[in-house]
């Protein structure tokens, strides 16, 4: 065994070693010279080879590199200096011009707007009587083929796809006739491997059998199944065999281009017909769904730090499916210096689990926040119904019962509340980890009354909005605003969990956590009936995953509309897009606090 290995190594060492060739190009510049080098780079000339024997291959590669740009009659001088270097003097010669262009859509796609738009937007339409370029032709072909796969034209084919080049006339003629055939529709959904009832898995689809096929609907269906938490893996595919397309790393001559000689002969092979697949007897596409069940018991531990609450730890226990109906249970324990919380949720999905569900939520919370003069022990339970809509909004309607024993500055009490409420929310981002575009909206309306045995009368609302927009790849703009209001005849009966405070990492930076609010005569915080907070932030990429930031924050909690003054701050910070999410470090200067020149804020986690 050892001898055989040694012999193999010796043989390999003795073999000629080939190196990629480097080209010095003169006579042409820019994309022409670059493409020549790209075509020659893969050429390997063995160490013991006769150099001049490779001149013909070098000549052919240079010709092929110029053809995509419309130059079919170049003059080329070759000097093979060594096996890994060549000098080239190139004159590209006269350009071939496009004399005739024929592009036709046939079949159902001729009345389908995306196909019509693809043809209208193609640079081919502006290339008549100008220099021939192969790239726009190939781009249009690829676009039509991609649209056919995306929109369910699985019998699509090119009746004719040809670039006919006549160098002796300096002329080219393009013919592209695309026959889409009929558009397919969704067929049955075939589920395998699911521990959840198959009809519930099918009901999560954003389409019904008989709807026109769209690949984006298949992708949305896959996303819903993944987000359900029921499955470790999800695989969806239309039950069709179809041909794919690949792209080259260099600007390549079109495979449909053929050179015609004056006598009509062609020196290149050509295939007129290109098909995506053979026609099928039925116009229905079954969708295969293959899933693997998720682990029934899931545990997670997280640790973190924020200047608002200091070190924090979170334990979670999640059971993503309790039965074949898809019921789920989640419990969380959150621990920090000022706050300790235990919460849980039992979710009961309905026939369409993605769209509708009932839930039971419960929790225990202890707060001992010296900075905000708050001490509170709270227990709560709520029953609610959730709806998800196609426009990405989520609606919740609920009834919450809570008991809170609290001390807020010089006020204390024990309050039992029965609170009906409703909320609406929507989050849209282009990237969960670090979005360059996104927005989030949250609207809450809830109230309570002594007429149904609550200890306080109030109507409360809160509106949150946040926006992320970008300019190019290196500039982000973030804006956010929060507006809250409480209507009540006896504010002293409103527990701290329903009062408004602001200040801290996520509101008005430069101030301690939730230390901006009305105070009593002794300077202790009471909390406010109204809330207004705004923020503007600009971020600029410094290098890689490192960003710099500048910001301006303003806000206050108050008891009468039209606060006497908004607390304001400005500052600068650093963002690092770490594998666990963005890490933020800010230095903020409060404009309305004579006792503190600046405050450092640190946090981990996404903006939304």
UniProtKB/TrEMBL annotation:
Gene3D superfamilies: membrane protein fhac (3.10.20.310), membrane protein fhac: a member of the omp85/tpsb transporter family (2.40.160.50). Residues 24-91 form the TamA POTRA domain. Keywords: Cell outer membrane, Membrane, Signal, Transmembrane, Transmembrane beta strand. The keyword Ligase does not apply. It is found in: Cell outer membrane. Interacts with TamB to form the translocation and assembly module (TAM). Belongs to the TamA family. PANTHER family: SORTING AND ASSEMBLY MACHINERY SAMM50 PROTEIN FAMILY MEMBER (PTHR12815), TRANSLOCATION AND ASSEMBLY MODULE SUBUNIT TAMA (PTHR12815:SF47). This is Translocation and assembly module subunit TamA. It comes from Kushneria aurantia. The lineage of its organism: Bacteria, Pseudomonadati, Pseudomonadota, Gammaproteobacteria, Oceanospirillales.
């Amino acid at each position: 065994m050892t001898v055989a290995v040694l012999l193999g190594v010796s043989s390999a060492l003795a073999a000629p070693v080939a190196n990629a060739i480097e080209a010095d190009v003169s006579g042409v510049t820019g994309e022409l010279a670059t493409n020549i080098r790209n075509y020659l780079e893969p050429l390997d000339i063995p160490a013991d080879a006769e150099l001049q024997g490779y001149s013909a291959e070098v000549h052919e590669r240079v010709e092929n590199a110029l053809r995509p740009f419309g130059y079919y009659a170049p003059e080329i001088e070759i000097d093979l200096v060594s096996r890994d270097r060549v000098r080239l003097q190139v004159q590209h010669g006269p350009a071939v011009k496009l004399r005739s262009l024929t592009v036709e859509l046939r079949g159902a796609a001729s009345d389908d707007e995306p196909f019509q738009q693809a043809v209208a937007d193609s640079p081919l339409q502006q290339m008549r009587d100008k220099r021939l370029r192969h790239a726009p032709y190939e781009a249009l072909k690829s676009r039509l083929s991609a649209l056919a796969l995306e929109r369910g034209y699985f019998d699509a084919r090119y009746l004719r796809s040809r670039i006919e080049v006549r160098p002796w006339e300096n002329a080219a003629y393009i013919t592209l006739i695309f026959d889409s055939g009929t558009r397919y529709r969704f067929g049955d959904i075939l589920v395998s491997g699911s521990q959840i009832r198959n009809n519930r898995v099918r009901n999560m689809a954003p389409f019904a059998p008989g709807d026109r096929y769209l690949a984006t609907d298949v992708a949305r269906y896959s996303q819903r199944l993944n987000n359900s938490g029921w499955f470790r893996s999800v695989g969806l595919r239309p039950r069709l065999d179809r041909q794919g397309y690949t792209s080259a790393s260099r600007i390549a001559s079109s495979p449909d281009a053929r050179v015609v000689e004056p006598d009509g002969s062609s020196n290149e092979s050509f295939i007129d017909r290109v098909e995506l697949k053979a026609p099928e007897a039925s116009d229905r596409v079954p969708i295969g769904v293959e899933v693997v069940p998720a682990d029934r018991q899931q545990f997670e531990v997280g640790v973190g730090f924020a200047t608002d609450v200091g070190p924090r730890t979170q334990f979670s226990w999640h059971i993503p499916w309790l039965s074949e109906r898809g019921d789920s249970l989640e419990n969380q324990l959150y621990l920090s210096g000022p706050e300790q919380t235990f919460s849980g949720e039992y979710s009961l999905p309905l026939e369409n689990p993605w769209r509708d569900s009932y839930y039971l939520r419960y929790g225990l919370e202890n707060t001992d926040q010296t900075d905000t003069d708050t001490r509170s022990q709270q227990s709560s339970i709520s029953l609610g119904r959730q709806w998800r809509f196609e426009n990405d909004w989520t609606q919740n309607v609920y009834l919450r019962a809570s008991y809170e024993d609290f001390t807020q500055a010089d006020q204390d009490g024990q309050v039992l509340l029965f609170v009906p409420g409703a909320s609406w929310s929507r989050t849209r981002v282009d990237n969960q980890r670090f979005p360059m575009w996104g927005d989030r909206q949250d609207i809450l309306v809830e109230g309570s009354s002594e007429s149904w045995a609550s200890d306080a009368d109030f109507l409360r609302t809160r509106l949150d909005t946040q926006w992320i927009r970008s300019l190019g790849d290196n500039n982000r703009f973030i804006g956010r605003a929060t507006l809250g209001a409480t209507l009540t005849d006896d504010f002293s009966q409103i527990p701290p969990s329903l009062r408004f405070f602001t200040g801290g990492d996520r509101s008005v930076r430069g101030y301690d956590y939730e230390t901006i609010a009305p105070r009593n005569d002794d300077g202790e915080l009471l909390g406010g009936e109204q809330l207004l907070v705004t923020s503007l932030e600009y971020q600029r990429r410094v290098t890689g995953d490192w960003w710099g930031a500048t910001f301006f924050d303003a806000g206050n909690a108050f008891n009468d509309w039209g606060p006497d003054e908004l607390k304001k701050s400005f500052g600068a910070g650093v963002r690092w897009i770490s594998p666990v999410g963005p890490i933020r470090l800010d230095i903020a200067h409060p404009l309305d606090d004579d006792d503190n020149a600046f405050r450092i804020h640190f946090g981990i986690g996404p903006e939304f």
